[in-house]
Design brief:
Elements lengths: L12 H4 L3 E5 L4 H12 L4 E5 L4 H7 L5 E4 L2 E5 L4 H20 L1
Parallel strand pairs: 1-2
Antiparallel strand pairs: 1-3, 3-4
Length: 101
């Protein structure tokens, strides 16, 4: 068994993806569609319902659904599979650059 560290290129892209926050609300058809696409594309995310949270409603309420990495908003509104696939590639590229850099 090798004890050499893994190169960023040899690590599975799914392992490089950060856990994201998916802001949604109950009864939102765009949120339900986005949730299904996130699962289909193997995103790691925690879902947060903004309903009843004044600060989250202020920040994201008019833009639901929202996908964020920390305070960085990545996508809001309609999440097509194409947009999410492109975002996933960008996030993996960023992670690999951080690891090698």
């Amino acid at each position: 068994m090798s004890t050499e560290p893994l190169s960023p290129e040899s690590v599975s892209p799914a392992l490089l993806l950060p856990e994201l926050t998916f802001y949604s609300r109950s009864g939102c058809h765009l949120c339900e569609q986005a949730h299904a696409h996130l699962l289909a594309l193997d995103y790691r995310f925690a879902e947060v319902d903004v309903t009843g949270d004044a600060e989250l409603e202020r920040l994201y309420g008019h833009h639901i659904p929202v996908l964020a990495a920390g305070e960085r908003v990545l996508i809001k509104g309609v999440f097509s599979k194409g947009r999410l696939s492109t975002l996933k590639l960008l996030l993996v590229r960023e992670a690999r650059e951080q690891q090698s850099g």
